[in-house]
Specification:
By secondary structure, this protein is mostly helical. It has one domain. The protein is built from 3 helices and no strands.
Length: about 80
């Protein structure tokens, strides 16, 4: 008996352009969903770094008022190395 569907499946090799475009579309949708989250985390990282630098600077300013410059340099260098 002649079975058309099995003959077609035997001749088919590889993937079609339509299948490939669907895969690319799904990957693009997933990436677009992740981009805003990544950007928000990057902004939060910059804000926390700025806060840490301000804390280190205010600490150094307080130390400079008391006349201990060497301590201030060590605090500022350890903060900037991050």
């Amino acid at each position: 008996m002649f079975n058309l569907s099995s003959d077609i499946m035997k001749k088919r090799k590889g993937i079609t352009l339509l299948e490939l475009s669907f895969v690319v579309l799904i990957i693009a949708i997933l990436i677009l969903g992740m981009v805003p989250s990544f950007l928000e985390r990057q902004v939060r990282s910059h804000i926390s770094r700025a806060r840490a630098d301000l804390r280190a600077f205010s600490h150094c300013a307080g130390i400079l008022l008391w006349g201990q410059q060497s301590l201030c340099y060590r605090v500022w260098a350890s903060s900037s190395a991050l």
